[in-house]
Design goal:
By secondary structure, the chain is of the alpha+beta class. The chain is about 30% helix and about 30% strand. The strands form seven sheets. The protein has a seven-stranded mixed β-sheet with strand order 3-9-10-16-13-12-11. Strands 20-19-21-22-23 form a five-stranded mixed β-sheet, with helices on both faces. Bound molecules: adenosine-5'-triphosphate.
């Protein structure tokens, strides 16, 4: 993980937040390449969930909802983790994760393992961030930053049903920030307090719920394979009945082999009719489906839920590679071209040569209308290639002496390092085609 964190920082993907003020534990800001890569993850998720389907529509609900939403959903009373304090080192730990935590005084030990440790009894700690709405600061103005996007979907079920003229099976997809006051955030972006969730609630007739649950586990698993994540680093893990939330009749985690071990990347749950029933009871508005023949039922819900952060880390870890080429070390991010922040670099071989620069600028202007591409004339060509390798740019077009003679350029492939020549006028079509090709990592 250290290598990923340091590359992310060095190349401006992700910085510790509020750094000039000493940071704010486990909070991060995204730089240019981080923003581009996040945009790609978000839009490829949206493409698979909404754009390429007839049965899912989009929603963007508010972050601060009526607080009664969180009473109905069970979050006010039950969205808690068990917490213990250490009276000696003054740190807080999750009572159920002591074996993964480090004691504040002796980092090689776990809390409770040294004679000095003095842990309190466990108590439940609510993970929702509280805030105040309006100028009054009393109980009646208490509100919460949403800890998940899903509830914003359930409370809009009726709107979508009527206005989007849908009937089960159909889904509502939403992407947006969620907030959890995690007791022990950490492992880079894996567990943060502010993250961007991508959730989809799929409403189905109860009798079909099991089939759709299995369907969504496979769909989401295959999405990761499509975008180049190695199958050996992915697995499905079905929760046992004891592990499942009270409302769930089936939960499967899609796990990734992070540097911290197998951990939840995405969760797929069969939530039954719990959420719609709860909101019906608390709001007095019937959230049910009524068919043309008058049949009525409360649909079951299948939910695939993931954060961009967990995908971001998994994809960086999966893509990171080091090798020696021509006796020199090379660090390369073998990202799927659709995920890579920059699709191509345009490099004039000799930056002082005005003709080369002119041609390179012209090509850059043509390509940038359709793709994120980067013009770079800073430093030796080898160093420029290395820089692009480190941010995962799949292709580099170089303008050289021969370009001035016959209007051809070389294209260099990030993974194979193979080079070929192309007419400059055909680069745009070539790039289009290359970005569309299925891609698999050459790494073992
Ligand atoms: P965990 O057990 O790891 O805390 P969870 O089971 O509470 O996760 P869910 O409530 O199912 O997580 O949230 C759905 C998804 O949101 C998770 O699969 C994960 O991708 C993401 N997620 C949850 N909490 C965080 C967090 N603190 N930071 C980043 N992503 C998160």
């Amino acid at each position: 993980m250290d290598k990923i964190v340091s590359l992310s920082r060095r190349r401006g993907f992700v910085f510790p937040s509020s750094e000039v003020y000493g940071g704010l534990g486990s909070t991060y800001d995204y730089g240019h390449y981080g923003v581009l890569m996040k945009n790609n993850i978000r839009s490829l998720w949206f493409q698979a969930m909404v754009q390429e389907r007839d049965d899912i529509v989009a929603l963007d609900s508010a972050i601060i909802l009526n607080p009664r939403v969180w009473e109905a959903s069970g979050h006010v009373s039950g969205f808690t983790d068990p917490l213990v304090d250490c009276r000696t080192c003054k740190l807080r730990f999750r009572a159920d994760q002591l074996e993964q935590s480090s004691c504040g005084r002796k980092p090689s030990k776990h809390p409770g393992e040294t004679p000095d440790c003095n842990l309190t009894e466990g108590r439940q700690f609510n993970l929702m961030f509280k805030t105040q709405v309006g100028a009054l600061e009393d109980e009646s103005s208490t509100a919460y930053l949403r800890p998940e996007t899903a509830q914003g979907i359930f409370i809009n079920f009726k709107n979508v049903l009527q206005l989007a003229r849908r009937k089960p099976p159909f889904g509502i997809a939403q992407v947006g920030k969620s907030f959890r006051n995690e007791i022990t955030p950490g492992n880079f972006l894996f567990r943060v307090r502010e993250f961007e969730q991508m959730e989809m609630e799929f409403f189905v007739p109860p009798a079909d719920a099991e089939r759709w649950y299995r369907y969504w586990i496979d769909e989401r698993f295959n999405w990761y394979l499509k975008y180049g994540v190695r199958e050996r680093n992915l697995r499905k893990r079905e929760h046992s009945a004891e592990e499942r939330s009270h409302y769930s009749s089936g939960t499967t985690d899609i796990e990734y082999l992070y540097p911290i071990g197998w951990s939840e990347l995405e969760g797929v749950a069969n939530r039954g009719d719990f959420d719609l029933t709860q909101h019906t009871q608390h709001s007095g508005t019937k959230l049910e489906f009524v068919g043309d023949e008058g049949e009525r039922y409360t649909p079951y819900v299948i939910e695939p839920a993931v954060s961009i952060e967990r995908i971001f880390v998994a994809m960086l870890v999966d893509a990171y590679d080091e090798e020696v080429v021509a006796e020199r070390d090379r660090t390369v991010l073998r990202l799927h071209p659709a995920i890579a922040p920059v699709k191509a670099a345009i490099l004039p071989l000799i930056p002082r040569n005005g003709d080369m620069v002119g041609k390179a600028r012209g090509l850059h202007d043509e390509l940038r209308r359709r793709h994120i591409v980067e013009y770079d004339d800073g430093g030796q060509i080898g160093r420029r290639y290395r820089r692009q390798d480190e941010i995962g740019t799949p292709f580099a077009f170089t303008i050289d002496d021969q370009t001035l003679e016959d209007d051809t350029v070389t294209v260099r492939d990030r993974d194979s390092l193979a080079q070929e020549r192309l007419p400059i006028g055909g680069v745009r079509a070539w790039l289009e085609e290359a970005l569309d090709r299925p891609w698999r990592t050459p790494s073992a």
